[in-house]
Structure formats: structure tokens, C-alpha cells
Amino acid sequence: MSADLVNIIFGMKMRQARAAAGLSLAELAQRAGMSPSYLTEIERGRKYPRNDKILALAAALGKSYDDLVSIKLQPTLRHLETALSSSLLGRFPFAEFGFATEDLLNLLTREPEKASALLHAILEMARRYDLQEEEFLRAALRSYQEIYENYFPELEEAAQQFTAEFAAYGLSEQRPVTLEALATLLQTEFAYRLDEQKLAQQPELLAYRSVIVAGKRPLLLLNPQLYPRQHKFLLARELGYQYLGLTERSPTSPPDEVHSFQQLLNDYKAAYFGGALLMPRAALLADLEAFFALDTWQPQVLADMLTRYDVTPEMLFYRFSELLPPHFGIKLHFLRFHQANGDLRLVRHLNLSQLHMPSGIGLQEHYCRRWLAARLLREMKAAQMAGEWERFPLPGIHIATFLESGEQFVAMGFARSLVLSPGENSSVTVGFRLTPEVMQRVRFLADPAIPQETVGETCERCPLLDCAVRTAPPLVLAAEEAKAKRLLALRQLEAAQCQS
Got the DSSP string for 131-183? Predict the structure, then answer.
């Protein structure tokens, strides 16, 4: 057991003993000959008293020395001990949310029995759905992004400053950054070595987009199967690590292991910097102003942004999620789905719009196939089978209405094949609530040619039995309806009993 946990348990037991004796901190301090502030530090698990002080505290509390120093907790607190000793608690980024770890412990130990029961329930749910610490940390990062609306001015300014500082390499906010410029920058200014062959020589490493081998002259291994625009992002992100001084990071992309929240946060910051470098804020905001001012939906204008900035659909849409909330007052949700053999998997999501979006975590159900993401993948598969698929087709759009709540939102999206996963397709979509303010801001949303669709969450919860794209029966809905009937029958029985 760690020293920190021993301190916490001692402080918890002392607080409980003080409460049982009906003593305030000041009264206990007077009896034991110590200051109230020192006792506060002990109760919060920050300090562990010397033996002579423990003897004085035990006498003041009417406890034996052995009882007070024992690290064994009563049965109702065992789950609390398990939670406090978990690595998750130590790795969770409380400070990023303005919450010191000891503040949390203070809250937990005020009502330790209730806290123990709550934590036991949470741990049971985590075990039931096989949630790993990495998933908790990724959820914390998404929450962190949502708190700040996924916009970080200091990273925007850093990318702008970098562009000005290294303008001699051809960097400019008015034209796309070239792959050659980024490669030269990394090699000249940051002593990088770049290699596009080594990963291909080891087939087991071809699942990685890149691998960094640290050293005096870092070696960046790039997957040769990727498109040049994907290489550009990887190089721009490396510049972010270096320019921002981010040392704790993932050595591979995608990462195999997550060791800390700081690692995830640094990876995110470097990627943000890379996106801002490839798609400068001022230029993209001007393009978005012009796009939103169109009277009709013109997908080619959106597709042309991919060419102008030489980026992938995911890079472009994720950049939208950073710029639209602060500059247009439009909060987005971002979804990325993968599909292989008919299986639709949500692999990345960010919800700034606060719409009730499916998370895909612990949910063994089938996502609504009326969603734009699913429709684009169906159309893509059909085109592939007919031999008519283009690498970058025009994006799709629809205005969707949630079946139960009646909330409306607009979604735009692209579909594409995954270069590192043959036979697997991907769709990326962004969406936002359809409000009068948004309708005024985005003029083309009044275009009557934009398809309208009614959507649900999952097939298992959907009452639309005549849905042409349903992939599973409404089992959850049927169970809920059966439960409602049972409750109604029970109430009727109770009412009849009261009248008799």
C-alpha cells in the first residue's frame, strides 16, 4: 500500500473518530495539544503524524494507538479503499478541471460509507462493460475539449507565430503548406531524420501511420502507404511537439498505450497545432463565411476546401469543430464511423452541441442506419461494387429530426476508403442544431433540395417498423413497452383494491 493511501486512511479514521466523539477540530486540537490547521492537514491525507502525536490523538479521541494506526477499514469502507488505491484515481487529471485530488478525497471521506457504495457501483459498471483506464482518460480529454468548446487561442497564436517565424521556408497563411517545406523544416531546424521505407520492411508495423524513435536526431518513420496529405499532417504535428516543447507523448500513431492524461493532452495539442498550421484560422474563416453565405447547398464548394488546403475530410471537419463555436456561435458534433462486413463502429466522437448522441461505449446495439454517416457508407459500398467509386466524392448533407424529441440538426459528411485497412470504409460527419440563429448564419440551409430525414438512436429502440434500412428488431423498445404495460396493470390493480 502506498504512503499516500496510508495517509488518506489514517486521516479518514481520525475524522470518523472525531465525529463519533462529537468534537470539533478546535476542540480536538486543544485536547491533543496541536493546531487545528495541522489536524486539517492530517484529515485530508496530506500529513502523517509522528508516534508521539498519534498517542496524544488516540488519548484525546478515546481510541487505542493500534486502532488508530491500523490500515484495515470496516467492511462498509472496503470499496472506498479499493478505489482510493486504484491507479485511475492517481492518473485522473483533476487539476485540469480546477479540482485538486485532495479536494475529491475530502468530499469522499465526509460520508465514507455512502462514497464507498457509490464507488463500488461505478467500479461494477466499469467491470461489466470492460472499461479500461485508457477509456476513462480519453473521456476526460473529450470533457476537457468540450469545457473549452475545443478552441484554444494560445495554440492558434503559436501556429500563427510559427508561420511568421519560418516564412523563409515557404510558410504562408495565404496558400497551402507544402510537404517539402514541412520536411525541410523538420530536418533543418529540428535535426529530424525522415524515413518512408523501414515500416514497409516490417509488415507487423504497417498498421502504424508513423513511429518516432527519440534521440539527439529524432527518427520519424512514415508509412509509405499513406497519401501525401496524411504525411503532411504527421509532419505538421511533429513540428507542434517541438515548437510547443511537448515531451510526454505517444511514440506511435495511432498510439498503442496511454500512460497518462498528460500524454493524451500533449498529443491533442500537437495535433491542434498541426491542423492550425495546415489550415490557418484567418483563411479558413474567410472560406467559411463565403460558404455559409451561399443561397443553395453547393457540395463542390466544400469539396474544394480539401484541395485548397490539401487535407483529408477528417482534418477539415475537425478544424471546423475548433473554429465554428467561437467565431460563428455554432457548436458542432463530430462523428467518425468505420464499416467492414456491414458492421458499423463509432471510432471517434466529440459532442459540443449537447445533442443526445450515441457514444458507442458499452452499447451492444445497432446505430440508426438513417444517420447521414450510415447513408454515405451504403452509397459508397454500392458505388464500389458497381466500379463507380471515386477517391474523393462530393460530400452529402441532410436535415434530420430526432424521432422522440423532435430536435432538428443538420449533418454534412464525406465517405472514403481506409488506405491502411483494405476492405474497410470510413465516414466523417459534422452536425449542429437547426435553430433560427443558425438558419440566419448559414443561408443555404433554407435550400428545399436538402434531404429531410427522421432519425433515431438505435434500431433496438426505434418504433419505425417499416424502416427500409433497419438492421435489428426493436427489442429494447418492446421490453420497455412490456414494462410500461406491467406497471399500468399494477396501478389498475392497486386502484381497484382501494375502491373495494
Answer: --HHHHHHHHHHHHHHHTTT--HHHHHHHHHHHHHTGGGT--SSSPPPHHHHH
Collapsed DSSP state (helix, strand, coil) of residue 402? strand
State yes or no: cis peptide before 36, omega within 30 of 0: no
283 within a domain of the structure (yes/no):
no
CA geometry: angle 178, 271, 278, nearest 5 deg: 25
Provide the grid cell at 438.
443558425
Per-residue cell: 113: 460509507
Mark whether 47 and 60 lie in a shared domain: yes
**How distant is the alpha carbon of residue 451 from its chain centre?**
30
Same domain, 421 and 444: yes
Which cell is 80 given? 472506498
Residues 6+ away with beta carbon under 8 Å from 267: 249, 250, 255
Residue span of the structural domain in which 378 resides: 317-473
Q: Which helix (H) or strand (E) holds 130?
A: none
Q: How far apart are CA 354 and CA 152, in angstroms?
A: 20
Contact yes or no for 308/275 (Cβ under 8 A): no
**pTM of the entire structure?**
0.81
Find, among 378, 411, 396, 404, the residue nearest to 456 by Cα: 404
Query: Is 150 in the same domain as 140?
Result: no
Domain count, the chain: 3
pLDDT confidence of residue 98: 64
249-301, pLDDT tens digit by residue? Answer: 999 999 988 888 899 999 999 999 999 999 999 999 999 999 999 999 999 99
459 in the same domain as 340: yes
CA distance 251 to 107: 37
Residue 95 lies in a domain: yes
Query: Does the CA dihedral 118-124-128-132 come out positive or negative?
Result: positive
State whether 259 and 151 are in the same domain. Answer: yes
At 56-115, the pLDDT tens digits run 999 999 988 888 887 666 665 666 666 666 666 666 676 666 666 566 666 666 666 676
Which secondary structure element, helix H or strand E, spans residue 430, and what is its range?
strand 425-433
Least confident span in 26-35, 292-301, 324-333, 355-364: 355-364
From the list 30, 27, 71, 34, the residue with the least C-alpha distance to 49 is 34
* Contact between 349 and 215 (Cβ < 8 Å): no
The stretch 39-58 carries a mean pLDDT of 88
Give yes or no for a contact between 350 and 146, defined as CB atoms under 8 angstroms apart.
Answer: yes
Sheet containing strand 219-222, edge to edge, reads 193-195, 219-222, 210-213, 252-253
